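ugh ok fine here u go
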Amino acid sequence: MSVVPVIEARGVRKRFGDHDVLRGLDLAVAPHEVVVLIGASGSGKSTLLKTMNLIERVDDGQIFLSGDDITDPRADADSIRARIGVVFQLFNLFPHLTVLENITLAARKVHGWRAADTRVRALELLETLGLAAKAGEYPDRLSGGQQQRVAIVRAILTEPEVLLLDEITSALDPQLVGEVLDLVRELKRRGTTIVMATHEMSFAREVADRVVFLKEGVLVEQGPPEQIFDAPQHPATAEFLARVRR
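structure:
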């Protein structure tokens, strides 16, 4: 019996003006799989994640979430987004709300969770992920790494079907990157389905079940980290990795 992918792109195309950013891309992500997207800036990594969350509408092709065609014009975009967790480069925390209020806002307002239940769940999650002491703090009292970890906790509070992470360490000072990546390691251990774009090659090697190399909107090569990083089959993959390792 075949497993239904958690999220799947079939023949996805996306154009901005005269520029084809995604060119007939296919990608299927299995339950509990961690797929890491690598490639140069402009390769289509972020655009692919945005189409998966309907921030950008595809020009052609389809995207399925647990078998549901979310690119169908009749689909309810808000209800679809409620099933997906997303974290971008910038933390997007509300400065006038505490950590706990930031984390629980969407669960209460979008998902309709009871305030008391949401608070209990949020505090439990903050405790297990080492952020309990920050629950009453405001974002400007946190380091960049702590703010990004709070953004991740907010995204996973409602147990989304898939978590999309777009270059979540790129806006951080190097010394703060480690604490954010530690949280992603913990999410992998918990079995979270993740699609992640990153420039952190060593982390991609460590955490990914599958690495996908994109170039100019095309999926050039994919496979286990040891294959992609140690024995790439496509010259473009080898050239890219040689360049980023310099």
